[in-house]
Amino acid sequence: MPSLGQRTMKTLVGAVIALAVAIAAFQFAQSVFGDQTRWKGGGFGMYTEPHPNSRVAWLILTDRDGTEYRQRLWRTPSSYREQADRQPAEINEAMYGLAELAYRRAGSGDTALDAAMFATADKIPWQAGPDGHLVVEGGTPLEPVSARVEIYELRFDIHDGVIRAVAK
Amino acid sequence: MTGVQAVSRLPMTGLEAISEKSSHAWLAVFTAIVCAHLIGTPHIEPIERWTAIACFLCALPLAQGPAGRVLQILGAVLLVRMLVVDWILFANHGFLITYFSLFFAVCAVTRADFWSHGAMFSRTMLALLMGAALLHKLVSPYYMTGNQIADMLLRGDGYTQILATAYDGMADVLLATKTALYELLNDYNLQQVGGSTELPDLGLILLFVIYGMTAVSVFVQGLLEAALIWQRWFGIWLHRLIFCFSLLVYTLRPENIFLSMNLMMGYAMTDERAKGMRLPYIIVIAYLLISHLTGFRPSLIR
Fold first, then answer.
1. Which residues of B are less than 8 Å from A38 in CB distance?
2. What is the pLDDT of residues A90-125, one digit of tens each?
């Protein structure tokens, strides 16, 4: 492989540094003015806000008479593997896909993910379960008229001595 | 025999030998970090991860030849692809690893000696990392309240054992916090009304540690940034500060790959005056990577 010389090398290394600076600046702006988590995305803002694992997401479906049913969206694949013997693999897969999209949406503030998120939710044959919970087996048929995802973040406040759930 | 071949066969001086070995060790350390990082990144498809691992591992013994260079470039391309596809989920150390893989790829393309340029690149990247982190800390409405450190300490992520020896109520605080977190995480109705759960009395020792840790971590990071800017003035203290910062982070969360990258950058910045720090760097990085892969974490510090 022929040598391209010191000048080319310096230019290319400079381009890598410029890329790193640009990404850090973009992520910084997104975290200050948008919803991007400071923990991810190349802006080096770790430890300056609660970790994304402090977030909890819920899918809420409303039926014709206005009753709401909810399902917690688990973040970890292992939570769905535990349910593998209770519900079909494709439903587990769809639930995990939905959770991933929901947390990604919360982490980035990217509204373009909304359509994919609700399309994934639509693939799951939801039923109305007890105590306002959504189930996929053993419930009553449900015809939702609207759907939304709510994300909450747990924040410590040592001044007040409390842990508080903050809506995102 | 040509003149060039004759020169290359001359015995190396001591300085050249050290430089040569350091250069190989640096590449080996980077390869080990990339492999450990990719092994523990389950959200990336296994085929992609293992192809990239194979590229970096095979490039290591072939680094000086054309095949090694091609593999280094291919490895960097695969890392860039992983990052572009899922940049939102990529932790900051994933970005750092990708930037360094691009650096090695650039050296491979231009046939430049990566060791002689590594110090400058590492210094710039570490200064960017520390500077950006400091900026985030200064503007974050959450961080300077101490709540971030409280979040980690009260979940049992840091200093649990040490605090338990100094503060009798530590076990109660941890238990109450975990119960409160569990309730809040699972109770939708509580979340919907912005519910809160009161913590037990934290005690002066715990409050002192929380505020002290916040102040110390900002101070050390600021000092480290200054040491990177005025490296010549700080001399060996730059490396001591890197170790100090790494120890601070190590006590809080399992961030072994991120810390290994910090230390790898420190290693690349060791000049003749600081070459005594090279072995400690290698030992600590090896410890961090082995403990990352085995899940080992001493309970005394955690």
1. 136, 140
2. 787 888 888 888 888 877 777 888 888 888 888 888
Distance CA A95, CA B76 (A): 33
What is the value of ipTM here, to two decimals? 0.85
Whether A23 sits inside 8 A of B95 (CB atoms) is yes
User: What are B113-117's contacts with CB under 8 Å, separation 24+?
Assistant: B113/B23, B114/B23, B114/B26, B114/B27, B115/B19, B115/B22, B115/B23, B115/B26, B115/B268, B117/A9, B117/A13
State how far residue A44 is from chain B, nearest Cα, in angstroms: 5
Tell me the nearest-neighbour CA distance from B124 into chain A, angstroms.
8
d(C-alpha B133, C-alpha A145), whole Å: 45
| pTM metric for this prediction | 0.83
Answer yes or no: do B194 and A159 touch at CB < 8 A.
Answer: no
Give me the residue from B42, B110, B145 closest to A12, CB to CB: B110
Are B268 and B121 spatial neighbours (Cβ–Cβ below 8 Å)? yes
Contacts of A24 in chain B (CB under 8 A): 128, 132
With 70 as the cut, is the pLDDT of residue B6 above it?
no
Dihedrals phi, psi of B129, to nearest 5 degrees? -60, -50
Q: Please name the amino acid found at residue A112.
A: A
Give the residue from A50, A22, A56 showing the smallest Cα distance to A38: A50
Q: For B140-180, how does the pLDDT look when each residue is reduced to its tens digit (9 = 90+)?
A: 888 878 888 888 888 887 777 777 887 788 888 888 888 88
Residue B131 has pLDDT above 90, yes or no: yes
Which pLDDT score is estimated for B151? 84
A-to-B residue pairs, Cβ atoms closer than 8 angstroms: 181
* Amino acid of residue B266: G
Distance from CA of B134 to the nearest CA of A (A): 8
Q: Could you write out the three-class secondary structure of chain B?
A: CCHHHHHHCCCCCHHHHHHHHHHHHHHHHHHHHHHHHHHCCCCCCHHHHHHHHHHHHHHCCCCCCHHHHHHHHHHHHHHHHHHHHCCCCCEHHHHHHHHHHHHHHHHHHHCCCHHHHHHHHHHHHHHHHHHHHHHHHHHCCCHHHCHHHHHHHHCCCCCHHHHHHHCCCHHHHHHHHHHHHHHHHHCHHHHHCCCEEECCCCHHHHHHHHHHHHHHHHHHHHHHHHHHHCHHHHCCHHHHHHHHHHHHHHCCCCCHHHHHHHHHHHHHCCCCCCHHHHHHHHHHHHHHHHHHHHCCCCCCCC
Distance (Å, rounded) from C-alpha B66 to C-alpha B83?
Answer: 26
Mean pLDDT of A45-56: 84
| List of chain A residues whose C-beta atoms are within 8 Å of the C-beta of residue B69 | 1
Token pair for B197:
């759960």
